[in-house]
Design a protein that fits this description.
Chain lengths: 459, 495
């Protein structure tokens, strides 16, 4: 699987020299081909002596990540066409794909070291991407912030790993699972490991970088950061916790319970007060991360299915929102919620697409977000965490409030100088169509969930 | 899949039709055809249901069908109706149909308005035909969210505030519902989401019932305007455009009562048994408090909204009596209140559309100017205070007869308090009619106003016909209902 990615990278690098207009289709097309190859359920195997392994479930997660990346590429085109970025568009694709490769390694790792390598491969290019508009001060700042927090969290993670190694004498997931006991050192290791990963998924209290980086980074990068890297990290978290920390299940569930409650609640409260839409989406995505981790908490097969399904739905809805933010930002330079006042009158289609995506994020039926939230809750409820589910449910009401604020801005508020009407470009249209298809179809068509469910497993 | 799916299919087709319509006339055409189709389907369903029962059909639910949806979670698209849901479907059919005519004069963003309106109707109909708790809950939420835009955009007064308050409170209620539904599902062994099967198995542990019944009941009761969670209702109704008030007070609030009965009490009888006292007290307070609040209001819509709170609390009050007569009365009250409150809101909307004020201190002598509307208004008021021959009387009669069957002091005291609302209703209703319809015309400008147009007359006559129909010939609907409430009442009585 990894070989295909390297091939793809090679293709893209040679393609970079051409500098013609067929460049983006080439990258997108190759990724599509790759996705299609990947979509066929692959057998279980492992390479590098058990360092990297593959199961059908991991194949599905890879497909989900691929689809998300394709959508991001489609949306990024309008931004990459701009004067100041067009000469380095090749770099964008290469860097994004190397982070994707890192994520593959992360979710497929069978050893903590491999996991660590994957994590680093995923985060270092990400910092470059965040600083892609390097002449914009905010973007450079975002890059710096991201790299510093990423390094710090890696440090924590490594420290945790060394403790685990000290406690068990091995770094292979399966062996750790056999040898680990609830001695203080192992629990410390677990705590550090979780905090390190918490930075990646931006859970409270490790979320402080999120808003600044999201605001500063180019919108396409933000959208990539908010769904793809978060989804991969959450899935990796689930597999590792289930695989190697199974004996400590009571401990990490207890840690996660508090993290989830704090994450969802605080992020929601902060989101209410944002005016910049990208910052707003940052807090919204922190709170969504809380829901995703709620899927980790259950640690049964229903939770795993729900988690992957949630990530998929979240990709569709969130990328639709970011796609719209991106296209509006590129065309008019406006990113504040108050700028969206009266959008429906000017550009009803975009406003409508935005509305249903926001409804999906808030979990309103018949859109897919409702189903994914329900399944996540059902999984956690099954594991007995009904109080957490209850708090999360109360929080969905708060989240509905702030999503409705945007709907209100677009439909109800009057505006003297609304965003001028424009026609979206072809790539944005395709990407939004895919996203909306997902938002509307994923819930109604149960086949997606059933397919994922086929390969899910639990403790 | 059987013909019941038409109740969801028609609104979906209407949505599609509306999406592609280009001008107001096409929109109106789609709405009239669609809502008539829904009404006719509802009537046909009722006729078929009564015939099937007469022919000796024994099933608790008739016309059932299953379609597997999410197999791993046992979620199915299960449809089926009994007497209660047939009554509710008829009510919804009538309200959607008349609501279309009441919104005939809508001018701004007509297409979007009807899109959301139909979206709401989809949820309502879907809710009443589902017997799978997941699908039911899904339709329930589908019915709630359009209210935000309908009130927020097309409403009047402090519409943004009201819309947000209404949506958040109801969504808060549905959050409670969701946790209750999960508790039912997992408490019952996670094998089925079908209402009937859960009720048949009935092995939800007592502890689970004890914890989750109040949550589930409150979740539904928020929509049923139970004190102290009724505060969304006056603001929401007052700000909403006419047809939306009609649909909301007429049908949507019934979702709450129906859910309390069908889901909360039916599936968690033990919980119902334990918690009746608390909710009965709250419902009684709601009945009296709503009536008193209506007395002091000066805005027409607020008066009717508080009167709705009182009447809807009466529904909850009757449901909590947990015997056949009172529960039948509760369902009758839902139908009756749905019809008369819709009539009331329609008339208020029409009067407001002419006078541009709803303050009763500024209105007087309208009988001389718009006799048709004022006669309708008087009929609505009389129905509201429970005059024999109109629907309100039948319902309240059954409720209080049922309530008096309980001989203990607690139920007696509650009943006595609740009955006072009849008198109070007479106070505010008669005062209201006297003030605005009779007397001198104080504002000379009003002399220029016109009486109802054809579309308004049509809607009003339809509603009056239904109100009087239920009032004069209640036996067919009441026997249909009383047969169907038996399983629910028995579930509690079996304890």
């Amino acid at each position: 699987m990894a070989v295909i990615v390297i091939l793809l990278l090679f293709d893209v690098i040679t393609g970079q020299k051409k500098h013609d207009k067929y460049f983006s289709p080439l990258a997108i097309g190759l990724l599509c081909v790759h996705t299609l190859i990947n979509i066929v359920p692959s057998p279980n195997y492992d390479i590098f002596g058990g360092m990297y392994y593959n199961t059908p479930m991991i194949g599905i997660v890879r497909t989900v990540l691929n689809i998300g990346t394709i959508i991001v590429f489609l949306q990024a085109d309008i931004w990459l066409k701009r004067e100041d970025t067009s000469f380095k568009r090749g770099e964008f694709y290469v860097l994004t794909l190397s982070t994707l490769l890192g994520m593959y390694l992360m979710i497929g790792a069978g050893n903590f070291l491999m996991f660590y390598i994957g994590l680093e491969t995923a985060s270092i290019p990400m910092a470059t991407l965040a600083a892609f508009d390097k002449f914009r001060q905010k973007s450079a700042e975002a890059g710096a912030k991201y790299i510093l927090t990423a390094m710090f969290s890696s440090g924590l993670l490594l420290f945790g790993l060394s403790m685990i190694y000290g406690a068990t004498g091995t770094l292979y997931f399966d062996d750790v699972n056999k040898l680990i006991t609830s001695q203080p050192m192992a629990i410390m290791g677990l705590a550090f490991f979780l905090s390190g990963l918490g930075f990646k998924i931006s859970l409270v209290p490790f979320h402080l970088w999120t808003a600044d980086v999201y605001q500063g980074a180019p919108t396409s990068v933000t959208s990539y950061l908010s769904v793809i890297s978060k989804g991969a990290a959450a899935f990796a978290m689930l597999t590792i916790l289930m695989k190697s920390f199974q004996p400590l299940v009571g401990y990490w569930q207890q840690i996660l319970v508090w993290i989830i409650i704090v994450t969802i609640t605080l992020a929601n409260l902060f989101a209410i007060r944002q005016d910049n839409l990208k910052r707003f989406m940052a807090f919204s995505s922190v709170s969504q991360a809380g829901y995703i981790v709620l899927g980790v908490l259950g640690a049964n097969s229903m939770s795993m299915t729900s988690l992957v399904f949630y990530i998929l739905v979240y990709i569709a809805a969130n990328l639709a929102v970011f796609g719209i933010i991106n296209v509006i930002e590129q065309k008019s330079g406006k990113v504040n919620i108050s700028d969206y006042n009266g959008l429906y009158k000017v550009n009803p289609k975009l406003a409508f697409a935005m509305t249903i995506s926001l409804f999906s994020l808030a979990g309103i039926p018949p859109f897919a977000g409702f189903f994914s939230k329900f399944f996540i809750f059902a999984g956690a409820f099954k594991a007995g965490f009904w109080l957490v589910v209850f708090i999360a449910l109360i929080n969905t009401v708060i989240s509905l409030y702030y999503y409705l604020l945007i709907v209100k801005a677009m439909y109800i508020k009057e505006n003297d100088e609304p965003i001028a009407y424009f026609k979206s470009d072809c790539y944005t249209k395709i990407s939004l169509a895919i996203c909306l298809l997902g938002v509307i179809g994923l819930g109604v068509a149960s086949i997606v969930y059933d397919t994922i469910n086929l390969f899910a497993y639990g403790i | 899949m059987n013909f019941l799916i038409l109740f969801v299919l028609f609104p979906l087709l209407m949505l599609l039709g509306l999406w592609f319509s280009r001008n107001v006339n096409q929109v109106r055409g789609v709405m009239v055809v669609g809502s008539s189709a829904l009404l006719i389907t509802a009537i046909v369903t009722a006729v078929m249901y009564i015939q099937a029962r007469a022919a000796g059909a024994q099933g608790e639910m008739l016309f059932t069908s299953d379609l597997s949806w999410y197999a791993p979670l046992n979620i199915k698209l299960s449809l089926g109706v009994d007497g209660i849901s047939v009554a509710m479907l008829l009510l919804s059919g009538v309200i959607v149909f008349t609501g279309t005519f009441v919104s005939w004069q809508m001018k701004v963003m007509v297409k979007e308005y009807f899109l959301w309106f139909t979206f709401l109707a989809t949820g309502v109909f879907g809710f009443f035909i589902s017997i799978d708790i997941f699908t039911m809950f899904m339709f329930y939420e589908v019915a709630l969210i359009p209210m935000y835009l309908l009130i927020g955009y097309w409403g009047t007064g402090k519409k943004e505030y009201s819309a947000m308050k209404l949506t958040l409170m109801l969504m808060g209620g549905s959050a409670l519902l969701l946790i209750g539904i999960l508790a039912i599902y997992f408490g019952n062994g996670a094998t089925t989401m079908n209402l009937l099967e859960i009720a048949r198995n009935n092995h939800i542990p007592p502890m689970v019932q004890h914890i989750f019944f109040p949550l589930l009941f409150t979740g539904f009761a928020v929509l049923g305007a139970m004190f102290p969670f009724h505060t969304w209702s006056p603001d929401g109704h007052a700000s909403a455009p006419t047809a939306v008030s009609m649909l909301h007070a007429g049908v949507l609030m019934k979702l709450g009562g129906y859910g309390c009965l069908r889901v909360a009490i039916y599936l968690m009888p033990l919980g119902a048994h334990d918690w009746t006292w608390l909710f009965l007290i709250l419902a009684t307070i709601g009945v009296v408090y709503g009536a008193f609040s209506a007395c002091v209001q000066t805005d027409l819509k607020y008066i009717n909204a508080y009167s709705s709170v009182s009447h809807c609390s009466m529904v909850l009050f009757a449901i909590l009596m947990l015997n056949q007569t009172a529960t039948t009365g509760a369902v009758l009250q839902m139908v009756s209140h749905g019809l008369m409150t819709a009539l009331f809101f329609a008339l208020i909307g029409m009067i407001y559309g002419r006078t541009h004020t709803r303050d009763i201190r500024l209105l007087s002598g309208l009988m001389q100017i718009m006799p048709f509307l004022c006669v309708g208004f008087a009929i609505a008021a009389l129905a509201n205070l429970g005059l024999p021959g109109l629907s309100g009387f039948v319902a309240e009669m059954s409720i209080f007869v049922g309530a008096f069957q309980h001989a203990d002091t607690f139920h007696r005291v509650c009943t006595i308090f609740a009955t006072t609302s009849i008198v109070i209703a007479a106070v505010y209703m008669l005062r209201l009619v006297g003030k605005i319809a009779y007397g001198k015309v104080e504002n000379e400008h009003y002399r220029l106003l016109t009486d109802a147009t054809w579309d308004e007359r049509f809607a009003v006559i339809c509603l009056i016909f239904c109100v009087a129909g239920v009032g004069c010939a209640p036996w067919w609907i009441s026997s249909m209902i009383s047969h169907s409430v038996m399983p629910i009442v028995n579930a509690v009585a079996a304890l």
